[in-house]
């Protein structure tokens, strides 16, 4: 069993930066792929970024490519999402997730992930 806890959200002006953290309990997190998703009010949860267990493979949504960076520290059992050049449309609750399937494919759909955090609010003002 893996428990995930996000932190680092907040209010930031457009053009600013935030770094989200995802602290995991359970040693197996380090062998799971991880992902970040977000959900704005009235919208479906959408994919942001995913990272393989080793950190060597990544995939990003087109809307964040070049602005966001996903990373992880398997010693600390923590994942990160560095968000730069933030836009008002990035406003959402951000969730981290872990995929225990050991698949070599990085999944972009919520149903592919088995463990979820409670989310952290990111608000970008214009």
Outline the structure in words.
With 126 residues, the protein is mainly β. Helix content is 0%, strand content 48%. It is built from no helices and 11 strands. The strands form 2 sheets. Strands 2, 4, 5, 6, 9, 10 and 11 form a 7-stranded mixed beta sheet that branches. A 4-stranded antiparallel beta sheet has the order 1-3-8-7, with no helix packed on it.
| Biggest beta-sheet profile | 7 strands, mixed
Helix and strand content put the structural class at mainly beta
Low-confidence stretches: none
Question: Care to count the β-strands?
Answer: 11
Q: Which descriptor suits the 3D outline?
A: globular
Radius of gyration: 13 Å
Count of alpha and pi helical runs: 0
Please outline the helices and strands.
Layout: E1 3-7, E2 10-13, E3 18-25, E4 33-39, E5 46-51, E6 58-60, E7 68-73, E8 78-83, E9 92-99, E10 115-116, E11 120-125
Parallel strand pairs: 2-11
Antiparallel strand pairs: 1-3, 3-8, 4-5, 4-9, 5-6, 7-8, 9-10, 9-11
């Amino acid at each position: 069993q893996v428990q995930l806890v996000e932190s680092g959200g907040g209010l930031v002006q457009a053009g600013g930066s935030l770094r989200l953290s995802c602290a995991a309990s359970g040693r197996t997190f380090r062998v799971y792929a991880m992902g970040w998703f977000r959900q704005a009010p009235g919208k479906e949860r959408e994919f942001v970024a995913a990272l393989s267990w080793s950190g060597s493979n990544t995939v990003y949504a087109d809307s964040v490519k070049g602005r966001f960076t996903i990373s992880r520290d398997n010693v600390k059992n923590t994942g990160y999402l560095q968000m730069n050049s933030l836009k008002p449309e990035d406003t959402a609750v951000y969730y981290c997730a872990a995929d225990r399937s050991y698949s070599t494919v990085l999944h972009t759909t919520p149903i592919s992930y088995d463990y979820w955090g409670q989310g952290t609010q990111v608000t970008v003002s214009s």
